[in-house]
């Protein structure tokens, strides 16, 4: 189980570093999705205990389905946020004709 926690931290770090380093807004959104996936994997790996309370009978230690349902909500809301940000980037790139943050800042500062 520890391998999943380590893997989730690596995935989150890759997404966070990519979000900070990349200058293209669409690549930043992709890296935000990677960061969110790493966080969801981290919480799922913490909540998972190896047994399902629905299928297995006479068990003392089981995974809590409430945490998994919360994480499903996090995934859905994260997808909605990413798609809304993509729409905003599309509108902005149609007006300014670029996805690069440096060029957008230059064009906005020039007026």
UniProtKB/TrEMBL annotation:
Q: Name one GO cellular component term.
A: plasma membrane
Return any one Pfam family short name: Oxidored_q2
Which positions, given as ranges, span the membrane?
A: 6-22, 29-48, 68-92
Q: Which UniProt keywords apply?
A: Cell membrane, Membrane, Transmembrane, Transmembrane helix
InterPro entries xref list: CPA3_antiporter_subunitC, NUOK/Mnh_C1-like
Mainly resides where?
A: membrane
Task: Show the taxonomic lineage.
Answer: Bacteria, Thermotogati, Thermotogota, Thermotogae, Petrotogales
How does the entry describe its membrane topology? Multi-pass membrane protein
Q: What is this protein called?
A: Multicomponent Na+:H+ antiporter subunit C
> According to the lineage, what is the superkingdom?
Bacteria
Q: Where in the cell is it found?
A: Cell membrane
Q: Which family does it belong to?
A: Belongs to the CPA3 antiporters (TC 2.A.63) subunit C family.
């Amino acid at each position: 189980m520890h391998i999943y926690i380590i893997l989730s931290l690596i995935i989150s770090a890759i997404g966070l570093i990519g979000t900070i380093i990349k200058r293209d807004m669409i690549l930043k959104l992709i890296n935000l999705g990677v960061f969110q996936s790493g966080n969801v994997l981290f919480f799922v790996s913490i909540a998972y205990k190896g047994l399902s309370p629905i299928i297995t009978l006479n068990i003392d230690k089981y995974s809590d389905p409430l945490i998994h349902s919360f994480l499903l909500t996090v995934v859905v809301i994260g997808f909605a946020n990413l798609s809304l940000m993509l729409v905003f980037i599309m509108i902005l790139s149609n007006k300014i004709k670029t996805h690069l943050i440096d060029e957008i800042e230059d064009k906005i500062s020039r007026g």
